[in-house]
Amino acid sequence: MAVEPTRWGIIYNPKAGSRKAQKRWSEIREYMEERNVAFDYVQSEGFGSVERLSRTMANNGYRTIVVVGGDGALNDAVNGIMNSEAEEREKIALGIIPNGIGNDFAKYWGLDSDDYKGAVDVLIHRRLRKIDVGVYSCFDGNGHVSRYFLNAVYIGLGARIVRITNETRRFWGIPLLSYFSSLILVAFERKLYRMHLKVNGEHIQGRLMAVAIGSGRGYGLTPSAVPYNGWLDVSLIYRPELGGLLSGLWMLQQGRLLNHKIVKPYRTKMVKILRAQNAEISLDGRILSEKHFPVDVKIIPEALTLIIPR
Question: Does 267 map to a domain?
Answer without folding.
Answer: yes
